[in-house]
Amino acid sequence: MTPLVFYYGAGRLADLQHYERAVLQPEFYRPVDLRVLRAAGVETLAYLSLSEDQGPPAPWQRPERNPDWGGAFVYAGHPGWTEHVLGQARAALAAGFDGLFLDTLNVELTYPEDLPHVLALVASLRDAAGDGYILANRGFGMLPDMAEHVDGILFESFSARWTDDGYGPWPADILEGHARVAEELPRYGLDLYALDYADTPGLAEFAKRRAELFGLHCVISDRALSLV
Fold first, then answer.
1. Domain for residue 133, yes or no?
2. What is the CATH number of the domain that holds 134?
């Protein structure tokens, strides 16, 4: 079985059974679907956003929005936001998800003052998940402390990215910076993955080979994460 897939669509249960772990949007999967995947040996991880909110207006939302996806940035320390995210996590786990995928963790690039609040939320999610698997997307600004609460780290867009003009590798200076970060990750003893975006075999092969050099298992997908 392939180690990991990100699929943000619905259904495709037969295709998902070829993977050890699958990151899914929890609203698209019923408990019966999750039981089918578990019986096939697939560990399902429910998507959670920890610093952006796609929902209706709420008191924890900042005025600013993510220009790519339109979600509102949040005040990560707002008690209402904490309960909202924990409620989502508990609902997903109760429905049959085996663990959690934690997204939008790199607040050091937007609101660095929120780093302690996001780390506290990660710790609370660890408690909620118990022995369930937790995969964190980046979150490098919270290392080494975050490593105590997660089982794996994903380096999204490690080598290749999407832009409004298409897909391509990062410029050389960005690749070098990513390499310096990746060189430090093995010290935490966690599962390590890369998620790269490519639309040609050549770009996909470049990303896979570069990830392998740094001990990362590479997942290739499109911008919409619609490939299985």
1. yes
2. 3.20.20.70
Name the pTM for this structure: 0.96
Task: Give the DSSP H/E element, type plus range, for residue 204.
Answer: helix 201-213
Residue where the block lists tokens 């867009």: 157
Rounded Cα distance, 150 and 129, in Å: 10
Q: Which value, to the nearest 10 degrees, does the dihedral of the CA atoms of residues 164, 73, 24, 55 take? A: -110
> Contact, 191 vs 175, CB < 8 A?
no
DSSP-assigned letters across all residues of 132-167: SEEEEE--GGGTTGGGGT-SEEEEETSSEEEETTEE
Residue 100 sits at the vertex; the CA angle it makes with 17 and 1, to the nearest 5 degrees, is 25
Please state the rounded mean pLDDT for residues 30-44.
98
Q: Which domain holds residue 95?
A: 2-50+79-221
pLDDT digit string, tens, across residues 177-195? 999 999 999 999 999 999 9
Please report, for residues 8, 21, 115, 186, the alpha-carbon distance to residue 141 in angstroms, rounded to integers and kept in the order given. Answer: 26, 25, 7, 16
Confidence band (pLDDT; 50, 70, 90) for 69? confident
What total number of domains does the chain contain? 1
Residue 100 within a domain: yes
DSSP label of 10: S
pLDDT for 1 equals 85
In one letter, which amino acid is 124?
Answer: S
What's the pLDDT score for residue 12?
Answer: 96
Task: Work out the number of other CB atoms within 10 angstroms of the CB of residue 219.
Answer: 24
